[in-house]
Design brief:
By secondary structure, the protein is α/β, with parallel strands linked by helices. About 40% of the residues lie in helices and about 15% in strands. It contains six helices and seven strands. The protein has helices at about 15-30, 55-60, 70-85, 105-115, 160-170, 190-215; strands at about 5-10, 35-40, 90-95, 120-125, 125-130, 135-140, 175-180. A five-stranded parallel β-sheet has the order 2-1-3-6-7, sandwiched between helices. The protein has a two-stranded antiparallel sheet with strand order 4-5. Strand 1 (about 5-10), helix 1 and strand 2 (about 35-40) form a beta-alpha-beta unit. Helix 1 runs parallel beside helix 6 (about 190-215) and helix 2 crosses helix 3. The structure holds flavin mononucleotide (FMN).
Length: about 230
């Protein structure tokens, strides 16, 4: 049995294209893998706090230090998010582009789960990611077109950032599906249909790799939290 972590970051609830696509992927996945578990997090319904001094003080205090209620509370929120992150074998994130990058809600989430000693370790060359052997799917809607080779390619601070931060955390298998012209555009439905085909292809690949790992002739998907 595998565990998926499904997160939606769109501030739009009704009519969100990223929510529709991420939910469709999860629904199809569970049809094919009914024994798998899904943890769902909606960053609009339950806003993750930004990192404050309370969290930093709690993390960096020597063991045994008395922590205030605010410090304990900040630490327990981050701990729970990290536990949930590490429990996932696969990640499915619906993350629209806001102002050429990710929504603030998703940045707050990332700041909570990048934790030295939990998801990051200290190696010979400095900090290195501990979150190995997982698969990640990022569905990114955007009203504009930032295609590779196009005039606005270098306006996209979304894909490079997410590939960098999650890659740094140790996740090597990242599938990024950009959905251009996702809002109020004649192409919208065509782009969604194209994205759905890419999502089906991703699910097929993940399933094939998981079966191969089970048969002993592929890369296993270990669960660090187990
Ligand atoms: C606050 C905000 C900022 C946005 N910034 C951009 C942007 O920089 N580039 C872009 O192409 N679209 C931008 N959009 C449009 C969204 O990316 C687009 O509507 C997308 O479909 C949102 O995803 P959703 O349908 O899942 O909510 C922005 C929308 C909002 C609400």
């Amino acid at each position: 049995m595998k565990t998926l972590l499904h997160i939606d970051a769109s501030a739009n609830v009704a009519g969100s294209v990223s929510r529709r696509l991420s939910a469709g992927f999860i629904s199809d996945w569970l049809d094919a893998n009914p024994g798998d578990a899904v943890n769902y997090r909606d960053l609009n319904a339950e806003v993750v706090p930004v990192v404050t001094s309370h969290l930093l003080e709690a993390i960096y205090s020597p063991p045994g230090t008395y922590l205030s209620e605010k410090q304990r509370s900040a630490l327990s929120i981050s701990d729970a998010l990290v536990d949930e992150f590490l429990a996932a074998d696969m990640f499915v994130f619906g993350v629209p582009m806001y102002n050429f990058t990710i929504p603030g809600s998703f940045k707050a989430y990332i700041d909570q789960v990048v934790r030295v000693g939990r998801t990051m370790g200290r190696g010979e060359k400095g900090l290195e990611g501990l979150v190995k052997g997982r698969k990640m799917l990022i569905i990114s809607t955007r009203a504009g077109d930032y295609s590779k080779g196009g005039p606005r390619e270098d306006w996209d601070f979304h894909e490079p950032y997410l590939r960098k931060i999650f890659g740094w955390m140790g996740i090597q298998d990242i599938t990024y599906v950009p959905v251009m012209n996702s809002r109020n555009h004649a192409d919208q439905e065509k782009r969604v249909v194209e994205a759905e085909a890419l999502l089906r292809g991703t699910a097929d690949r993940w399933n094939a790799e998981i079966q191969a790992a089970k048969a002993g002739n592929g890369t296993a998907v270990p669960n660090l939290a187990a």
